[in-house]
Amino acid sequence: MSESLLDVRNLQAGYGEMPVLKDVAFHIGEREIVALVGSNAAGKTTLLRALSGVLSHSGSVRYAGEEIANLPSDAIFARGLVQLPEGRQLFGDMSVHDNLLMGAYRRSDRGNLDADLGEVYRIFPVLGQRKRQLAGSMSGGEQQMCAMARALMARPRLLMIDEMSLGLAPAIVDQLLDVLQSIRSRGVTVLLVEQDVYSALRIADRGYVLEHGHIVREGRARELADDPEVKRAYLGV
Amino acid sequence: MNLLWQGIVNGVLLGGLYALMALGLALVWGVLNIVNLAHGALIMLGGYVCYYLFTGAHIDPFVALPITAAVLFVVGYAIQRRLLNLVIRAPMFNTLLITFGLDVVLTYAAQIAFSADFRTVNPSYAGANFSLLGATVPVVRLLAFVIALALTFGLWLFLTRTPLGRAIRATSQNLVAARLYGVEPRRIYALTFGIGAALAGAAGALYGVVSQLNPYIGTSLTAKSFVIAIIGGLSNPLGVIVGGLVLGLVESMTSLYIGATYTNVASFGILVLVLIVRPTGLLGRTA
Question: CB-based contact (8 Å) between B167 and chain A?
């Protein structure tokens, strides 16, 4: 197993008096693609919100050897943990170009921005053609590309993606999964949180199944995809 | 015809200053979702800072303007960090209540500190004017107009061309996403309120040159700024210029053809009309 980049133990979080995550533990190795799958309301988004520092939580979150539990979101972002949130959460009244620049808001190496912008426009040519268009006026697939491009502009070390495939055409999902494979080869670690179990396990190295705030299964992605329980519950076979 | 032309010139010159007055209110409202009822009081404070720099330190009011803006920036930053941060997520009623209280405190503190006397920043060139196609153009009003437009354009450039400006716009549009991408909302809120107060200070400095100061001018200036922000829309500083010009022209024409006592009726009539026809403001985009 590769060295752990993220090691989560006994993580608990919720909203008000309502607990959502109960004693969650998992780890992600450097340069891995890890899928976290589960049905609606399993706690997947809550987990990402806690890891990103926008939801208070208890337990241990060690990232690159440092305890980062309950650090503020900007401090977590500055360490290279970047979240691509569910529903894209673009800045809809800002241009595509400005959205991408917001991805690089905390970067100090501003001299490299043009090169990185060129790179994301090469990966997603449609964004290059629409760089002056308001992000909120694009189609769902284009918005997801913009959201991913914005995340890449942050130069993430660990990219956490929430429901990337939601509402997208299969061809777009395939294109985005190819991008994930490509950025992993450049050293980015990926945590892919998905309801679309088939897509997630197709490109992941390992996977976890989250149910009612607990990790109930874990293993190699292929093993999970072949697990009869997972097949029955999530793949409908 | 000459009367109409003079009215248009007066209205446009007044509108530029109005736009600057409203700019800070619209910025704070758009980003923090706070309708700052103390905005007019900050304009009033700016006027007094400029007045005392002029009468006490003999600094020309147009030179004193950046100093006034800087002083008000510090005041605004402190108000946001120490007071408004307490109600930043609260319902709008709470923010209205706290800014109303702030307005009262600032107004009566100004009365104690400066007295209720009327004061004017009156440089040697205050009476200078020239003729433009038959209309009289007061030099100080033209200077105030040009500075107001320059500051508005400068704010637009800042918001659209700088990382911090983009962060302010991003925070106003999607707070959660802004936080996820490294923005510190408290810092952005304090900076935004500071900038809004600085713009109010600059407007106050110019107001003191073209009109009279007393501690009670804040309420009517807040009301005018509110009307302009609604007419122009909250999302675009250039819309505030349009709103300011519309209000300036409406007031000027009403004063000229109907009577000065009816200017507020006309201003709020225009506000109601805009809210009915284009609720997002003249330059605001529809959903």
Answer: yes
